[in-house]
Amino acid sequence: MAQAFSGRPVTHHEDEERPHRRKVYFWAAVGALGGFLFGYDTGVVSGALLFIKHDFHLGAFEQGLVVSILLLTAMAGALIAGRTADRVGRRPLLIGVAVVFTLGLLAASLAPNYVTLLVARAVLGLGVGGASAIVPVYLSEIAPARIRGALVSANQLLITIGIVVSYVVDLVFAGTENWRAMFAVGIVVSALMLIGLFFVPETPVWLQRNGREDQARRVLCEVVPADRVDGVLRSYRTSGDQGGGKVSWRRLLRSSARPALVIGLALAAFQQFAGINTIIYYAPTIMEDTGLNASNSIVYSVIIGSINVVMTLVAMPLTDKAGRRRLLIISLTGMTISLIPLGLTFTKLHGSGASTIALVCILVYIASFAIGLGPVFWLLNSEIYPPSVRGEAASLATMVNWLSNFIVGQAFLPVAAAIGQGPTFWIFAVIALLALLFVIKFVPETKGRSFEEIDRALQRRL
Known about the structure:
Blueprint: H1 14-55, H2 60-88, H3 90-110, H4 114-142, H5 148-174, H6 179-196, H7 204-209, H8 213-223, H9 229-237, H10 249-254, H11 258-273, H12 276-289, H13 297-319, H14 324-344, H15 352-371, H16 373-383, H17 390-419, H18 421-442, H19 451-461
Helix pairs in contact: 1-2, 1-3, 1-4, 1-5, 1-6, 2-3, 2-4, 2-17, 3-4, 3-6, 4-5, 4-16, 4-17, 5-6, 5-13, 5-16, 8-9, 11-16, 11-17, 11-18, 12-13, 12-15, 13-15, 14-15, 14-16, 14-18, 15-16, 17-18
Subcellular location: Cell membrane
GO molecular function, one term: transmembrane transporter activity
Domain Major facilitator superfamily (MFS) profile: 27-447
């Protein structure tokens, strides 16, 4: 990567950069709408399903499929997106994602029957998977190094905001049982994203790597002081393998990208197997099991989602100040510690005291996740790979993340029924501890570093 663009720390004054950064902020805001739609489309179904099941007379299996089919097609969307983005560019792929979101939401809001709704959810899964793989890459490749962490973390912030907004929309339309309107609201954002993408450029990294140096120079001239453009382009030429072409996953694992890919795949799995979506999906049920009244599940979801948003906001500037590695260590420590007493509330503790402890533990767990493992995984997954395989590698790690999400979601209730919820949360605690040890041993700091510096640090550790 480069000075001023995802590379070495800049040395000129902040007032020189500020006018150029305004355009970067606009481009990032448009791209990050994909993160909002990711969050909205995964969250909106929780409230909509309360009424869909009556309108379409759905059984338990059919309801579960409405939710899980998005996770399954998101895996496919992530894999398709990475290879496509490396071949045709980040911007065309994002335009395709916005179109997919729009069509999926329109089909869901107009679905005349269960099968059509299922197809619509499958289409939305492709959009969610594509956005989760490519939005962070796009943000990383347009971002100056000094604010790269904050801009890429904006994707995670918009995901959490999208989830909370979906819950609020569910709450607004719950009184009229209008689940179609719940889906239709998302079309407004997907249309804004689609329109906005016609006013943003391709990333200069992709343009330069694909022989379009004049176009890359024009993009850089809009956001970098003129006397720095040549230096940025020179750094792109030395930032890893510039070769194009199709890269198989087996070859990817055998290439110089292997250390980065090991970290990306491991963090992708750890993020889900540490139990985050289990806590989010089943928080009302968890609280009810400890004796606390959880009759209004949507309200509980809004509260927990709001904590997620607030702590993600806290994390955004810290990624470029405290650093990625330090935030991961703090995050995983807090998650591990909070899961241990949470398990105790189901085994040793009872009554109102247990409910209070469980609520505190859940909030500490969510806050710990949101300040580190939540945003930092997506940030690292967008900046540690060689530019020539970045889309492909990021999409592979994203697919592993979605697969892990699906496995944990399907396994939680059966495992909890077999061994109890307390021991199940202790399993999550052990996984979080293993993730902490992995980060301490293998994950280097990437704050303000060029790709060459990141790669040297990776090669030393793995």
